[in-house]
Amino acid sequence: MSEDAAEKIPDNPEVDYEIGQDNVQIFGLDIHNPVFVVSGGIIVLFTLYALIFSAHAEAMFGDLRPWITSTFDWVFMGAANIFVLFCLFLLVSPWGKVRLGGEDAVPDYGYPGWFAMLFAAGMGIGLMFFGVLEPMYHFQNPPLGVDPGDTAAAAAAGMAATIFHWGLHPWAIYAVVALALAFFTFNRGLPLTIRSAFYPLLGNRVWGWPGDVIDIFAVFATLFGLATSLGFGAQQAGAGLHYLFNAPEGVTTQVVLIIGITTLALISVMRGLDGGVKRLSELNMLLALALMIFVIAVGGALQVLTGFFDAAVNYVKQVVPLSNPIGREDLDFMHGWTTFYWAWWISWSPFVGMFIARVSRGRTVREFVTCVLLIPTLVSILWMTAFGGTAVRQYLSTGYEGVLKTVTDYTPELSLFAMLEALPLTAVTSFIGIVLVIVFFVTSSDSGSLVIDTITAGGKLDAPVAQRVFWCLFEGLVAIALLVGGGLASLQAAAITTGLPFAIILMILTIGVAMGLRNERREHLAGTTPTQVDPSIGK
Q1: What is the pTM of this model?
Q2: How many other C-beta atoms are found inside a 10 Å radius of the C-beta of residue 409?
Q3: CA-angle at 430, arms to 429 and 435, nearest 5°
């Protein structure tokens, strides 16, 4: 089949659009006009502003985050709750029988490779950074009015609060976006961009300026969400290098790390999805699994096992009150942690959602939602129980205050290494931790570049490599600019700012997904043949 044929949407009386028809070929590039030009231009200007006027940028971002999290907390909390309820509905709905790619579609990847890619893209750096820190922090400052003096209750509430931030809600956000992209691409033959999910609502207007605005916001959200994660990764990797090898600390080291890791990401980007991202993701999963098994084995396997079930039960008990934005007295927890997390996950959702969509052809909706929603939640519970639970037990059982000190001294990047210090083979496990952070860093950067390039190429998946290189470079530059212009506070503020409008976009997107699945199911029951999509589309 010719390249042109592969990019052509199959015959459909409702759709008259050819993938890439609005693209401009210039200087060897193949870019969507105006998505690439507008988003790329604004991001270049933003990077220059943050680097040249770093003091002004630091002051602006310092005020922006608390204002957004306190003023629009109800938007983020309400949106995340809607996504969870919608996913749970799909698990029991007849729509769950719809197969992504059509009735005869078969999965492109087996379960091991599929799980590795979706998990590494969705949570990697964050689990390394917060896996030890957050349970200890919430143990010291439990939510929902729990008395920190009651250590048993505080430990249970702290673990439930941690899992709340890494469980059903974030993965529901990813699942909704990924399902929308996979369904409209593989079942309806539309371009693999966020705008396609709005076709049931906007019709052919989605190819005009409304769709351009949606995709531009998706680029901004993805880039700044990724930059936040890269900032966390650089800070933790730098702290680990200082801890093990006495390397210099500070922003300079973090900038050097971002430059070095962005270079590795460029190599991976040029190797493509199967040659680069898939292999790195599988390597990381093996390393993460090995480190987790070691921590469980030496930190107390029985305690971790019982802690896993206790944490899961406490999470189920607390998920509703933790999800409620009304009448809360623990506003520091809700604004400082939950609202930020939901904004961060929402800003990541175009990146993670599109990436998961690309590797999920052939799954039924029910299988897809089950695997994307429930399995990562269970793995997150196990990870937090193994790492964070071990840190809390170290304090309660032996009085070891290494991790506690990272909370009180506000050196969160050292929490993982402080926990490992109290276990055997500290140097080896800490080095593995640094490697994990770096490889998670690389997989996030290269897969993010592939996703942004797809959006700004009008849904084309075979755009020139130079475009992926451009976005990979600017992910690193934006992270550097924000670190220089205020550190992690600036990175977090940027993610929240772009996450706010995108939260509204995603709530509307959910309606489009529901309409699409309903129509597909009706066509199947009526015995009509849905649009048959060329299997090369989306690969």
Answers
A1: 0.89
A2: 9
A3: 95
